[in-house]
Specification:
- By secondary structure, the chain is of the alpha+beta class.
- Helices cover 29% and strands 27% of the residues.
- It has eight helices and 14 strands.
- The strands form two sheets. Strands 6, 7, 8, 9, 10, 11, 12, 13 and 14 form a nine-stranded mixed beta sheet that branches.
- Strand 10 (186-190), helix 6 and strand 11 (216-219) form a beta-alpha-beta unit.
- The structure holds pyridoxal-5'-phosphate.
- Pyridoxal-5'-phosphate (PLP) binds next to helix 6 and strand 12.
- Pfam families: Aminotran_4.
- Belongs to the class-IV pyridoxal-phosphate-dependent aminotransferase family.
- It catalyses: 4-amino-4-deoxychorismate = 4-aminobenzoate + pyruvate + H(+).
- Its cofactor is pyridoxal 5'-phosphate.
Length: 275
C-alpha cells in the first residue's frame, strides 16, 4: 500500500532527485495494532534531516493524517516514509523552488525467529568502513551505499548483523542497527558525531538508562573494547533490542542489563501504544 503525495499511487517521476541522487530522507517505523510506534520521534528526526539538507519539511498535520490513513486497519506492519527534494534543478543544482515528494508505504513485518530476542544473535565485523561527515551524521538520509556494500559481505542465515567501523577504527554501529555494550555495570554507546544514524530506539535506550540510573558513557571505542564487553546488544525500530550472543569468535551471555533494558523498552512500547 502506498500514498504518494497523498494519493494512492506509487509511480515516482524518474526526474525525482531522490531517484537521481538519493537526495532525500527516510524513516522506517514499526506499526502495532495499526499504530505507528514512536511516530513523533520519527517525525522529529525527519524534520531535523530536512533542516540539515534544506528540504522543506512537509506539513506535519498532513503527514500525520496520511500516516493514520495508511496504517488504520492494519495490524503489525512496517511503515516507511520517504521525503525527497522532488524534481527539478540542473544537475546537482537545486531548483529555486523546492516541491518535496513524500511517499508513505506499508510493508509486511519481517518474521524473525523469537529466539533472536531471547537467546541473542550472531554478529561479525564488516570490512566496509563508514566515511566521516559530521553534516550527514545522525540523520537518516537516503544514501546508504556503505551499508549496502557491508551487508553484501555475508550470505545465509548464520549471521544476523554486521558491525561497521569508521576509517580511524572506531566501532560506529551495525549495518541496520545501533550498538550498545556493557562493561562492569556501565552501558557504553558509540559517539555518532562523525557518522552513523542516531536511532530512535538508541535514543529510547539512552533515556531509559538515565531514568533508571544506569551509568552511560557515549564516546569512541575500538573493536577490542566491544570484544571485551560483558554484554552486547543492537537496536532498531523493527527489531527492538536484540542481545548479541556472538561477535566473530567471541561469545557473550545475555546479561542482566540487556534483559532489564528489553523489559523497560517493552513497557515503554506498551505505554506508547495506549496513547
Ligand atoms: C544504519 C542504521 N543505523 C541505525 C539504525 C537504527 O535506527 P532506528 O532505531 O531509528 O530504527 C538503522 C535503522 O534502520 C540503520 O539503518
Amino acid at each position: 500500500m502506498f500514498l504518494l503525495n497523498g494519493e494512492r499511487r506509487h509511480c515516482v517521476d524518474v526526474s525525482d532527485r531522490g531517484f537521481q541522487y538519493g537526495d532525500g530522507l527516510f524513516e522506517t517505523i514499526a506499526v502495532y495494532q495499526g499504530k505507528p510506534l514512536f511516530l513523533q520521534q520519527h517525525l522529529d528526526r525527519l524534520r531535523a534531516g530536512c533542516q540539515r539538507l534544506f528540504i522543506p519539511y512537509p506539513e506535519q498535520d498532513q503527514l500525520k493524517a496520511e500516516v493514520k490513513q495508511l496504517c488504520e486497519g492494519s495490524d503489525t506492519a512496517v511503515l516507511k516514509i520517504i521525503v525527497t527534494r522532488g524534481s527539478g534543478g540542473r544537475g546537482y543544482r537545486q531548483p529555486d523552488s523546492i516541491v518535496p515528494t513524500r511517499l508513505l508505504s506499508l510493508h509486511p513485518f519481517p518474521e524473525y525467529p523469537a529466539n533472536f530476542q531471547t537467546d541473542g544473535v550472531v554478529l561479525r565485523f564488516c570490512q566496509q568502513r563508514l566515511a566521516s561527515n559530521p553534516v550527514l551524521a545522525g540523520i537518516k538520509h537516503m544514501n546508504r551505499l556503505e551499508q549496502i556494500l557491508a551487508r553484501a559481505e555475508w550470505q545465509g542465515d548464520a549471521i544476523q548483523e554486521g558491525l561497521m567501523l569508521d576509517y580511524d577504527g572506531h566501532v560506529v554501529e551495525g549495518t541496520m542497527s545501533n550498538l550498545f555494550f556493557v562493561k562492569d555495570g556501565v552501558l557504553y554507546v558509540p559517539l555518532l558525531t562523525y557518522c552513523g544514524i542516531v536511532g530512535i530506539v538508541r535514543q529510547k535506550v539512552v533515556s531509559l538508562a538515565q531514568y533508571n540510573q544506569i551509568g552511560i558513557v557515549e564516546k569512541q571505542f575500538d573493536k577490542t573494547r566491544v570484544l571485551e564487553a560483558d554484554e552486547v546488544f543492537v537496536t532498531n525500530s523493527v527489531i527492538g533490542i536484540w542481545p548479541v550472543k556472538q561477535l566473530d569468535q567471541q561469545c557473550f551471555k545475555v546479561g542482566r542489563i540487556t534483559r532489564r533494558m528489553q523489559q523497560w523498552y517493552a513497557e515503554a512500547r506498551t505505554e506508547e501504544l495506549k496513547l
